[in-house]
Amino acid sequence: AAVLNYYWMRRLSTLETLGPFDTSVDDVALLPFWAAALGAGVLIADGVLARHDVGFAESIAGAFRRLVPLVVAVAVIRSATVVGVLLLVVPGVLLGIRLGLTAPALMVERLGPLEALKRSWKLTRGHQLTIFYAFIPVWLLALGATVGAGVPLRDAMDLQAQNPLQDLTPFT
Asked: Among 28, 29, 51, 47, which Cα is nearest to 39's?
């Protein structure tokens, strides 16, 4: 995630994107992988909480069995959050919080994408501030991981991008 976030931020900083409405091929192509990773993470967390072993391969297989509903749900959440962020950030954060339990509802309760979105909305009603405060440390850790992975990656990409011969002009 950190590598992909760094790549996206690098494109954004060089204006190689359309901003929040970026629908480039790589973003669309990565959506199933993000959805599968999210679903696998939910299955692993559910296994840990239920105190039974869930292997990596088993969680990935479980996520791929529910891939289509996961992709639909992730696309809806991403679109809603982007629109919310465009409406002065706070609505985007609130939408992200309210829809944050969609993947667990989809994977653990085996609901369809729309039912999972409704279930998340119902479960988080009245708890937005508590959820927001609970996730501040998680967001800070994710930011640290993104920056921590991004710095060495940036240095490697900068070295690769530098061409010592690019400033030489041919003799005429």
From this structure: 47
